[in-house]
User: Which sequence fits this backbone?
């Protein structure tokens, strides 16, 4: 049974960097693609980007200048960094497994709320 | 345009058929997925590659995609199906795009 668990600070100050880690259990991160998605409170879903274990990445163009996704195969983890955050970045952040690199997101973490506030 | 448009809400009586649409430019040329999200929970994939159901998803969930519209159909809708539903498609150049979501009410 694949499980994904997000971890990281729940509060980030404006202009600082949001950093989250997703730990994968029950599957090797050297399979498939691994994605980050976010959902502002009461709103819809927004795809942030994905990484393949090879290091290949693909980012949402609207966030590309601020986003970095990295993978650590030794820890079976992947991570998200979002720079220069504002209140608009306040959201529940989900990590998910992408079966085919085309957003077939078949396993999701429980999500973690990140609030941007001073 | 890579936008996907869904109706904000759909209502259905228990046992009836619910249809939720997702519209986008030449959407039928892409693969569509559908996700179900219940309050306080993570989304769950219910349809992928237009018509396929992941293991564990009931047969009453089905999908289609043609022209500019993808449709999620729930036959014999149950109260447990009440949730938000999001369509999603992959657009070259922009990546994953989600629709705005549809709140399905079963009453």
Assistant:
């Amino acid at each position: 049974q694949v499980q994904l668990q997000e971890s990281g600070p729940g509060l980030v100050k404006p202009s600082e960097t949001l950093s989250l880690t997703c730990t994968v259990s029950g599957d090797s991160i050297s399979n498939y693609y691994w994605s980050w998605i976010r959902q502002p409170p009461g709103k819809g879903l927004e795809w942030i980007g994905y990484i393949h274990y090879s290091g290949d990445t693909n980012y949402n163009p609207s966030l590309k200048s601020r986003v970095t996704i990295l993978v650590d195969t030794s820890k079976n983890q992947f991570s998200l960094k979002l720079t220069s955050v504002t209140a608009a970045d306040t959201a529940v952040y989900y990590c998910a497994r992408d079966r085919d690199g085309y957003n077939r997101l078949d396993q999701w973490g429980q999500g973690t709320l990140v609030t941007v506030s001073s | 345009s890579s936008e996907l448009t869904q109706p904000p809400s759909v209502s259905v009586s228990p046992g009836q058929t619910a249809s939720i649409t997702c519209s986008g430019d030449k959407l039928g040329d892409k693969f569509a997925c559908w996700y179900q999200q219940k309050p306080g929970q993570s989304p769950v994939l219910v349809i992928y590659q237009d018509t396929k159901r992941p293991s564990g998803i009931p047969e009453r969930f089905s999908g289609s995609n043609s022209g500019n519209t993808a449709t999620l159909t729930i036959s014999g809708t149950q109260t447990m199906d009440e949730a938000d539903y999001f369509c999603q498609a992959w657009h070259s150049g922009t990546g994953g795009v989600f629709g705005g979501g549809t709140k399905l009410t079963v009453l």
